[in-house]
Fold this protein.
Amino acid sequence: MLKVEQLHQYYGGSHILRGLSFEARVGEVTCLLGRNGVGKTTLLKCLMGLIPAKDGKVEWEGQRINGFKPHQRVHAGIAYVPQGREIFPRLTVEENLLMGLSRFGASEAKTVPEFIYELFPVLREMKQRRGGDLSGGQQQQLAIGRALASQPRLLILDEPTEGIQPSVIKEIGVVIRKLAERGDMAILLVEQFYDFAAELADQYLVMSRGEIIQQGRGDTMEADGVRGLVAI
């Protein structure tokens, strides 16, 4: 389980994260919703160690990881798919996926795990194409596949539906639900597309001005008025 307690972060004189506390449980999709500029991506970067938290505690599987560098968090079983995907455009699809195996020894990092191609068949079809030649939706599937290659127990996704055609959004949603139902992974999904989040969420969190202003179970999102809280 991921446990965050009283997390604070500042940019200059601006207080960006204001005492955030929440949990993300294994076997569940925790959806974090909020309008642009409320601190969602800053939170994820703190969770991955890309920027240090100024105060508070980040705990993963019972261990405090505040002092862990990003690669140490990957080795601890955390994977991050950033907004904008950040694939390697000049590498092939297969080479991009193999990069996700970097936390394993050389003998284990030679072959793309078959389950990734089963989740995303298009990646098998295009494994010799350069990543930069793929569509936006295919690149997003590649970015998720690369993260899954590290066999994480916590998968963090930053707005995976952004700029993607509806058919691929649906495919990604099916994969996220399959991963959660396996029961061996916690999924933290940051999303602005309300309907996508509502379909997947076991737990929801609503963020505004650096704070969690509302949270609850996914099946109560509509009754709780979450749509109105995140409408742009």
Notes: The chain has two domains: 1-68+202-231, 77-184.
